[in-house]
Design goal:
heterodimer, A: 449 residues, mainly alpha, 4 domains, two-stranded antiparallel ribbon, 26 helices, 3% strand, globular, B: 403 residues, alpha/beta, Alkaline Phosphatase, subunit A, three-stranded antiparallel sheet, 14 helices
Chain lengths: 449, 403
């Protein structure tokens, strides 16, 4: 029978081994305390990402005028790419070194909730910068703050085309015959706040799109608000009028959206689906929704309601680890540390981490749509996805661990009390250490959480 | 009794394969129970702009709606012209192996969410079933309605799970990139470990069976001459696309009768002139390479259907793109197809004729065309198609899609 610390490590973290026995209380206290991992493994914010992007932007402009300067553009893009990869590694390193992993899993959850993708090579640093600037600082604060920071971040403004949207009656709209692009407005209501089931209309989408005009991601300056592209006059979203100058009315609308009961229910349900079960216990979701509404969207309170609820600790592990969790949990079990992951050669990092994740169905930072990665276990444990996990389990450990550990001991390290009788029986009968370790990693016991 | 009569008789009797022990071998010998025809379904994710792909250049209101999007000179039938991004398919059109349906959609309306739209498209249900309550895909229900099929009958190809083929009916899912090599002992032990977990047991068994079967299989070489489209430039996705198509074609050359996959990239909110070029070139490559890899005989028995969750706004938006709409287009190809026409009732683009004064008005249900294609290809009963495969659908009159 699985014990609570092991369950915590699987369900709310990146697996075993953990340094201190994780309890709900300790996990919440750590979350409220200082962010050690951000110090140990720094990532880049827009402050660092923007000069790299600006250099590539300028180099492209020059190269278009003079073909001889193409190499400068290429080297600028290479600098962006390497920095973005270093950023990914730092994020993964945090998952390897974190005490209980809850903060890192929450960051991954919110990064997925506010999915962004680079629209061009020069923007490759932006998705990570958004996590750094808009997600991580707010994960245990008010949802409204995160919603505002994410919506106004250049990564989001670019990915969901807000930069291309212009108020049709604004000076620029009139002069250059430009107009609305609905993309961000729709996903803001459908994905980021109310949820698709909420009672909003196409008119609300249009009004929200009009309200958001003026926001822009600029490759040289980052976030910009262009008053001469903003639609004049007030907009009415969900019956509430928002008027006035600058970004104040936009922030007011986002704050109101964050306080809506539909948003509370959407966020509570999504958290429960991600951490606990594809079909979560309704009482758990109700408790989390209530905590959200009672606290005005204080996320720390919502997590506390989740961890306090017995349904969050059901011993049946019905979720599947996503490929990124599978790989990082395995590396953790091998004893790999964050610094070692960051030192790994680029080729090896691609061969061992990023390319296999792609085969498992998770091309990192490239989900198909703005709704991010699927949650359903059946979306990951497909023949091809599981086939890729088994292949990794059989081939990669031998490249990282010499000598190979005893499989039974490795099962204890990687699974603790999560191992089942069938697995122990099989591991004892493997023909080699390589296959024994592979069986542990390929097992439902390791892949479910 | 020929096979079609047999199917009809069985459907009428509502019998199962178990009641006819001789059925399995008979249907296996006859090509897994569906006969010799092949169906390929491509789900176009992101909402393909039907009005840009099959342009109603002869409609008097069209030009004014989209002043910033160039019009094509590749005439199809009636008022329609084909986007140059699919220009490589002109020969296929002339040969009557390419067709389109315009102003068609699922029954999804108003919220215009990609994800709900795709759920409905793949589930094949109407709006009477709440979104989220769907538990299988229409292509899977088609498999369930034909007794005696093996898993090899239908393949979902690619890295992502495909809800279109999910369900109780046996089918396979694979991507040729995964190379799984296991010892006999490891396979036995994995079977043991997966025994009590349905999800892992089913996926694991299939992964192991399939990789063993595929190991040592000679990969058919590509006929490059028919796939080139150098004018569009290189595309880093082509090697991936080619390997998926080649894999699917290889299966379809054997006992497989159905292949399905998805192609993303159609969400062209801005600078559509550039943005739609890439997914179009990929779709064209899929179709042309499928034709060449299947060879004339199998292609002659094949119908490919490409469908999307909804169309896009009739008007271009304020940033040279289009936003989420309603009515759209469907693409049909294959040697079994009675092609060479743009089907569907054209509603026109006058403002009052638009849905919500904004989108192309749908005049048909996208499921009806798929149903008629399956009826023509596999001889499925109308009652099965309207009852089990697409519950509650009215197929309407026979458009005679299949030769």
């Amino acid at each position: 029978m699985i014990d609570t610390p092991t369950l915590a490590a699987f369900r709310f973290g990146y697996g075993l081994p953990y340094a201190n026995s994780p309890s709900p209380k300790a996990m919440l206290a750590a979350l409220a305390g200082p962010d050690d991992m951000a110090v140990h493994h720094p990532t880049m914010g827009l402050v660092e990402a923007l000069p790299l992007m600006a250099r590539a932007f300028e180099a492209r402009k020059m190269a278009r005028k003079d073909k001889m300067l193409g190499d400068k553009y290429k080297s600028a893009i290479r600098a962006v790419t390497l920095a973005a990869e270093a950023d990914i590694r730092a994020q993964f390193a945090r998952a390897l070194d974190a005490q209980d992993g809850f903060r890192e899993r929450l960051v991954a959850f919110w990064a997925d909730h506010f999915t962004t993708k680079a629209r061009s090579a020069m923007e490759r640093g932006l998705p990570g910068a958004m996590i750094h600037d808009a997600i991580r600082p707010h994960i245990s604060g008010r949802f409204a703050d995160m919603l505002i920071a994410a919506t106004l971040h250049p990564a989001m403004l670019s990915f969901l085309d807000q930069s291309a949207s212009t108020g049709p009656n604004s000076p620029v709209g009139q002069r250059r015959k430009r107009g609305l692009n609905e993309n961000l407005a729709r996903e803001l209501l459908e994905l980021h706040s109310l949820g698709v089931g909420a009672n909003y209309s196409q008119t609300d989408v249009r009004q929200m799109a009009l309200l958001l005009t003026g926001l822009e991601s600029n490759p040289l300056k980052g976030f910009q608000f262009h008053a001469n592209r903003a639609e004049p006059g007030a907009e009415v979203v969900l019956g509430m009028p928002y008027g006035g100058e600058g970004i104040a009315p936009i922030k007011a609308a986002l704050t109101d959206l964050a306080q809506r009961p539909e948003t509370a229910a959407h966020i509570a349900n999504k958290l429960a689906v991600h951490f606990v079960a594809d079909q979560p216990n309704p009482e758990l979701v109700v408790a989390m929704t209530r905590a959200y509404l009672d606290s005005g969207g204080d996320l720390q309170k919502v997590y506390a309601a989740m961890l306090d609820h017995p349904a969050a600790w059901a011993p049946e592990r019905v979720k599947a680890r996503q490929p990124v969790e599978f790989v990082l949990a395995a590396l953790r079990a091998f004893g790999m540390t964050g610094p070692a992951l960051r030192r790994m050669g680029r080729g090896q990092f691609l061969r061992i981490v990023l390319r296999p994740m792609r085969l498992m169905g998770q091309e990192w930072q490239q989900p198909i749509g703005p709704n991010g990665w699927p949650e359903d276990a059946a979306a990951w444990i497909t023949p091809q996805g599981l086939g890729a996990r088994i292949t990794w389990a059989m081939e990669v450990p031998g490249r990282l661990m010499t000598p190979m550990p005893d499989p039974a001991g490795f099962a204890r390290t990687a699974l603790g009390t999560a191992a089942d009788e069938r697995l122990r029986w099989a591991v004892a009968r493997a023909e080699s250490k390589r296959e024994g370790v592979g069986l542990v990693l390929a097992s439902p016991a390791f892949n479910r959480r | 009794m020929d096979r079609r009569q047999l199917l009809r008789a069985m459907t009428w009797a509502g019998c199962s394969a178990a009641a006819y022990p001789w059925l399995t071998s008979v249907t296996m010998a006859q090509g897994a129970g569906l006969g010799e025809n092949r169906l390929i379904v491509v789900i176009l994710r992101g909402a393909m702009d039907g009005l840009d792909v099959v342009q109603p250049i002869g409609d008097r209101d069209f030009a004014a709606l989209r002043p910033g999007l160039p019009t094509s000179e590749i005439n199809l039938s009636g008022p329609f012209a084909l986007h140059p991004g699919l220009g490589g398919l002109q020969k296929m059109w002339q040969a009557g192996q390419l067709g389109f349906v315009h102003a068609t959609s699922t029954s999804y309306r108003d919220k215009r969410s990609h994800f709900d739209g795709q759920t409905l498209l793949e589930a094949g249900t109407g709006m009477d079933v709440p979104i989220g309550a769907q538990h299988d895909g229409w292509l899977n229900r088609m498999l369930q309605s034909v007794p005696g099929l093996t898993a090899e009958t239908a393949y979902a190809v690619g890295r992502e799970a495909l809800p279109l083929l999910a369900g109780k009916g046996a089918s396979r899912a694979w991507t040729p990139e995964v190379k799984l090599v296991l010892s006999q002992q490891s396979q036995t032990l994995l079977d043991h470990i997966y025994h009590d977990d349905d999800l892992f047991r089913e996926a694991g068994t299939e992964a192991m069976e399939l990789s063993q079967e595929l190991a040592g299989r000679v990969v058919r070489s590509a006929n490059e001459s028919t796939t080139g489209n150098s004018a569009m430039g290189e595309d880093k996705a082509w090697p991936d696309i080619d390997s998926l198509v080649d894999f699917a074609a290889g299966r379809l050359a054997g006992a497989t009768r159905i292949a399905a996959f998805s192609l993303a990239g159609w969400d062209t909110h801005r600078r559509q002139v550039a943005a739609i070029g890439r997914p179009l070139s990929r779709l064209q490559r899929i179709i042309l390479r499928m034709q060449s890899q299947l060879g004339p005989q199998t292609w002659g028995r094949t119908t490919l259907i490409a469908m999307t969750e909804f169309g896009r706004t009739a008007r271009q938006n304020g940033s040279g793109g289009t936003d989420h709409g309603t009515g759209g287009a469907m693409i049909l190809a294959g040697g079994a197809l009675r092609g060479g026409s743009v089907l569907g009732n054209w509603p026109g683009l006058a403002e009052a004729a638009l849905y919500d004064r904004r989108d192309l008005m749908p005049t048909s249900d996208v499921r009806a065309w798929a149903a008629w294609a399956m009826r023509g290809m596999f001889g499925l009963q109308r009652s099965v198609l309207e009852g089990a495969v697409f519950p509650g659908l009215d197929m309407g009159d026979d458009p005679k899609l299949i030769l």
